[in-house]
Amino acid sequence: MTDYGLTAGQQQLIVDFMNAGNGVYLEGTDFGSHHYADPVYAMFGIYFLATGATSYNVQYLVGQEDTLLEKMNMNYTYGNYYPDLSVDYFYALGADTLSRCQSNNRRISAYSGDNGTYRTIHSAIWFGAMIEAGSS
């Protein structure tokens, strides 16, 4: 990985891995802003909308009903420069939304691509920056 995202070679390794029927979990606040036009991004069933602000993007997260994150409510390191820096906004194009933030923007999605031949989870937030808030 570079400061500007995945290299072309790294992207191809991920694409090949998924095309072989494997699942991929990928997190990063700027995956979309760096790779929205790359084939690897399309395999996550999402569409890049915009790059977030330099801070104060995500205050808390709410797991969505009927997903593996249902009833999981987490605080986030709101305003902390690195984890809250330019958190991408995305739209689901076939992916299921697993979690949304306080402004109702999608932050975590899951996708079963090509008729279930591979699976992905994409998180526009860093899991390590989540803080337990309890459950609903």
Structure in words:
- This protein has 136 residues and is of the alpha+beta class.
- A seven-stranded mixed beta sheet has the order 1-8-7-6-3-4-9.
- The chain contains three helices and nine strands.
- The model has no long low-confidence stretch (mean pLDDT 90).
- A hairpin with an 8-residue loop joins β3 (60-63) and β4.
- It has helices at 8-19, 31-35, 39-42, and strands at residues 24-27, 46-50, 60-63, 72-76, 89-92, 96-101, 106-113, 118-123, 130-135.
Per-chain topology:
Layout: H1 8-19, E1 24-27, H2 31-35, H3 39-42, E2 46-50, E3 60-63, E4 72-76, E5 89-92, E6 96-101, E7 106-113, E8 118-123, E9 130-135
Parallel strand pairs: 1-8
Antiparallel strand pairs: 2-5, 3-4, 3-6, 4-9, 6-7, 7-8
Indicate the overall shape.
globular
How much helix is in the residues?
A: 10-25%
Q: In terms of quaternary structure, what is this?
A: single chain
- Provide the residue-averaged pLDDT: 90
Strand content: 35-45%
Largest sheet: 7 strands, mixed
Q: What is the count of helical runs? A: 3
The CA-CA distance between the termini, in Å, is: 37 Å
How do you describe this structure in short?
By secondary structure, this protein is α+β, with helices and mostly antiparallel strands.
